[in-house]
């Protein structure tokens, strides 16, 4: 992302271009989660994204879920952590836990 770029402006630009857009927001963390509550990731229907919800640990999984959110319009609450069966697949082996809310915005 370009330094200083505003994620909501990017989402608006993508929406004006007719692309489906989802917003992922960190809503809860525990332990050594790399991004604080309120961090965002904006995703388009082609899987292009800007921002970060985990410093690279779970972005791929969030982008995949966002594609479904864009397609069906149903928001999702995602949870990743070492106690979760997806922990090793998405890379949160550092001991943290993160909850991310994904919603369609365009």
From TrEMBL:
Residues 14-81 form the XdhC- CoxI domain. It holds the Pfam family XdhC_CoxI. It comes from the Bacteria. This is Xanthine/CO dehydrogenase XdhC/CoxF family maturation factor. It comes from Methylopila capsulata.
